[in-house]
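For consistency, the fold was encoded as tokens, as this record shows:
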Amino acid sequence: MSFLKLQDIHHIYFTKASATTALSDISLQVEEGEFVSFLGPSGCGKTTLLSIISSLLKPTEGSVLLEDKTFSTSNHMIGYMLQQDYLFPWKTIEENILIGLKLSKKLNDQTKSTALLLLNQMGLNGVEKQLPKQLSGGMRQRVALVRTLVTDPKLLLLDEPFSALDYQTKLKLEDLVAQTLKEFGKTAILVTHDIGEAIAMSDRIYLFSSRPGRIHQIFHIPEELRKLSPFEARNHEAFSNIFQTIWKELDSIESGTK
């Protein structure tokens, strides 16, 4: 039994004047503890598929199964981390990280203590009473990660969470997120436009074709890269070859030769 299973996903956006096929014949499986990336040209339906997996969007056809069961965001099995941190600017950092626990009625002394400990582990000791505007972009994204993890979701969906950050902060957060997810044994799906990021962080990469989005090719990242931190993986000799291979495939898709 696969942890996450997508079966024959097909999605069409309807308007009064037209019908646009965003995704076609998407089937894939993700095992527990895996880190998978969706990569492809703009408009290929990567974020649409993430929304379908999260149950925020119902597919026109097909099904999504988690642990062989249908599910929804209402039962708190999914954590979602976006490009923007979406912290409430009028609430303190402590209040922000406890929002999910409060909404799910899991907030108590023990879960609060765990959340504050995780905040410290993220290198954010002493910011509890500060407001989001007092923190840097990278610090706010770390807060957003804490807020996502404290509800103990079974699956994390990451929609370009580092794309708004400067390069140095991005590389540091890649390492931090990868290490944290491994420590917690979390399963994650990353949507990104960054080939290097996908290679450095993933066990497997799904490359999507242009609209309608289909799985064009699957790349399995070799073990010698998977056992490294993302920063170390970027400096491994195998990284460049994989990058060039994926780059050529993506370029051929975008140029319309495939």
